[in-house]
Specification:
This protein is mainly α. It has eight helices and no strands.
């Protein structure tokens, strides 16, 4: 892929992600985790794959507002990209897309809500408070899961339709 195509592809994906976060949408219903999962397949360089969703997250946060849990959110998104990067040469194909989608959502849920519990006064700093935080966040998990599975399926299908067999066989 040429530098020009790579830059254009990154710009398009970043614009898509920023728009998905700033337009009205159900809470946590965005393609961010799906792009984090597929970034290592779109762009082979790890630094580019990690930078793609993070750049979009920062730009969107500049528009919708910065918050004290951003590092937790960014760490969870980055972990999805890193796990996908490491696993991209295994033989699980479409099953792996589903597993990565579910696993990424679970990591995001656990990490970000741990950050909410740890960094806020909403919940007591006890095991019961942590459990209460996770229980209160369950509806958001559902939105994250549905959007990540749907967008991952879309990206998988688009790659197959585009004839990206050399990359898709790694899925």
């Amino acid at each position: 892929m040429t530098v020009k195509k790579t830059a254009l592809g990154m710009f398009a994906l970043i614009s898509f992600l920023v728009a998905s976060r700033v337009i009205p949408h159900p809470p946590n219903f965005t393609p961010v985790l799906a792009v984090a999962i597929f970034a290592p397949y779109f762009f082979r360089e790890l630094a580019v794959a990690v930078a793609l969703p993070l750049t979009a997250m920062v730009l969107a946060d500049l528009i919708i507002g910065m918050h004290s849990y951003m590092l937790w959110v960014y760490a969870a998104v980055t972990s999805s990209t890193l796990i996908s990067y490491v696993l991209r040469y295994t033989d699980l194909h479409l099953f792996r897309v589903g597993a990565l989608s579910f696993g990424s959502c679970l990591i995001f849920f656990l990490v970000t809500n741990f950050g909410v519990w740890l960094g806020s006064d909403f919940y007591p700093q006890t095991v019961e408070g942590l459990i209460a935080c996770y229980v209160a966040a369950l509806p958001f998990f559902g939105n994250t899961l549905v959007s990540t599975v749907a967008f991952s399926g879309l990206f998988y299908g688009l790659m197959r339709m585009a004839g990206q067999q050399d990359r898709i066989t790694q899925l």
